[in-house]
Amino acid sequence: MKKIIYACMVSGIASGFLPAVMSAAALDGEAVFTRNCSVCHSIYPPPKSAPPVIPLANRYHQKFATKEQGVAHMAAYLKKPDKNQAIDAQAVSRFGLMPALTLPDAELKAVSEWFWEQYNPAMGRGRGMGRGWGMGRGQGQCINQ
Ligand code: HEC
């Protein structure tokens, strides 16, 4: 039992610390997001001045069959937002068109890949969304033990 608790603590600590450690790397998508996107995009509803990440990522997964296609569309959109290309026309009328971002291609790709991975099918329907999710992956395992 002690061992299990220890393992959970370690994995909790590891998952808590990992993003901080990784943000040192230039191409960590989450760090790119925090620096360049989080001022407008929250991860979870309610929105700031743009649609939150999780519902957007869910839409991308509905619309694109592969990560490659989704990431390609997103990276192109971030460079040159276009309401005819928007995956959610309502978002454009509600929030206005997103301003173009002048980030290096590698960062656009990294952040788009990270964004795509934020997909959470359990949150698709909009209610009771995701408490306790996303803060430390792996916590769920501990609760069951
Ligand atoms: C100044 C505010 C602002 C910033 C900064 C911003 N966004 Fe947006 N974003 C918006 C708004 C507003 C929309 C909704 C309208 C639209 O789709 O153009 C949007 C839409 C989107 C979409 C949907 C695109 C689609 O295909 O329809 C994605 C994905 C996105 N943002 C990702 C990002 C990422 C990643 C970053 C950082 C690299 C970022 N945004 C930075 C305001 C912002």
Could you please describe the fold and organization of this structure?
The chain is mostly helical and 145 residues long. The protein has a single domain, classed as Cytochrome Bc1 Complex, Chain D, domain 2, CATH 1.10.760. It has helices at 2-22, 29-36, 53-63, 67-79, 89-95, 105-117, 139-144. Helix 2 (29-36) packs across helix 6 (105-117) and helix 4 (67-79) crosses helix 6 (105-117). The longest helix has 21 residues, at 2-22. It is globular and about 30 Å long. It binds heme C (HEC). Heme C binds at residues 33, 36-37, 39-41, 49-51, 56, 74, 77-78, 81, 86-88, 91-92, 95-99, 101, 111, 115.
The poorly predicted ranges are: 5-26, 125-145
**What is the string of SSEs from the N terminus onward?**
HHHHHHH
Percent strand equals: under 5%
Q: Under the CATH scheme, which architecture would be assigned?
A: Orthogonal Bundle
What general outline do the C-alpha atoms trace? globular
Average of pLDDT:
79
Helix content: 40-55%
Biggest sheet character? none
List the defining traits of the structure above.
145 residues, mainly alpha, Cytochrome Bc1 Complex, Chain D, domain 2, disordered C terminus, binds heme C
